[in-house]
Amino acid sequence: MEILHAKYPFLSSAKESVADSGFDLISTIQTNKPTVNRALERILCAIEEGSIGPEHRNTTVELLSYPLARILVSLVNEPGLTHRYSWAESQTAMSHFKNDIEDDTKLKSISPARLSLKTLLDELQVTKNIVQHGDTFSISVETYLSFISYLPDASWKLVFQALSQGNINVEESELYKLLGVGIFRQIKSDLPLKVPKEAEKLLQTQLKSIHSYIDEIDLEPELGPVSIDFFPPCMAHLLQRIESNERLNPPSLFSLTSFLISTQTNPQETLDYLTNNSFHPSLIQSTMDYLQDKDGAPLYPPPSCATMQAYGDCVNMDEICQTISHPLQYSSKKHS
Ligand code: SF4
Questions:
Q1: How far apart are CA 231 and CA 200, in angstroms?
Q2: H or E element: which one contains 136?
Q3: Domain final residue pick, 214, 240, 257
Q4: Same domain flag for 195 and 263
Q5: Most Cβ neighbours (<10 Å): which of 84, 150, 209, 213?
Q6: CA dist., res. 313 & res. 262, Å (int)
Q7: Residue among 194, 257, 263, 255 at smallest CA distance from 226
Q8: Best of 230, 231, 314 to mutate for ligand 1, by most ligand atoms within 8 A of CB?
Q9: Which residues form the domain of 260?
Q10: Cβ count near 150 (within 10 Å)
Q11: How many domains is the chain built from?
């Protein structure tokens, strides 16, 4: 079994390698304890840490634990777990990929144990839609839109991108985030798998262990609209003020409302939330009408940090604030 496949078990060539090895699900569960343990570890670490835990020193165990982990996730069949597990696998693969690209550049050599950008693009079937121009990459709008649906930061929204002949230009680091979503979608796409009854019977101990973890926590997908936990301090403060029924002055209300329109996907929920928490529903409705088009897309982004400071609304700055110039950049910095 190749190291490359253990690092990137979602690749078609890795699946072929597992099939060629004569992998048998039932006998693996019955006789290969290290693989079963590593499969369980992948899932428990995904739940707890958002990663799949340290690689096993044995390449075969590492690779075979991937299909077994997918079997376990399929048996639990909880959308939140499937999402969180697939995300953890994709982020680990992307971290390997960034190291591989760095090593290729540093060592000026291509090793079969390292994944190339071309192979990854081929695997995700986007080779024709992503073209490199020096340090930047041009992505077709369709591919871009299909990837960003899982990215929480509003700065990815199309309204904030410059379109050039049906393409969007992104930097290398942005491309890697988008490809991470591509891997995530690929890993998640065929879950849950159909699992033989016999395997389910043999995996009862592992299933109990997973349930004991997930029954304790909220497994709602973490991606999607920006959660309030990831709001920048200025917006969290404005939200608190509005929830205390304080009447915000027009610039502050503009800032908060435009931030919510830019980061939350459901305009009606945003409106309901604000009006339910304020004595001034008509003012909020008219501000929202002004800031979004009829489909709820933002017409104006929220003000920059410099403007927020000028309004006196830049409060409770933290370490992340030292590294950004716009409140919309806050959540992705906090996620990274
Ligand atoms: S630095 Fe920017 S993001 Fe941070 S609190 Fe001030 S305005 Fe908000």
A1: 42
A2: strand 136-140
A3: 214
A4: no
A5: 84
A6: 18
A7: 263
A8: 314
A9: 228-335
A10: 20
A11: 2
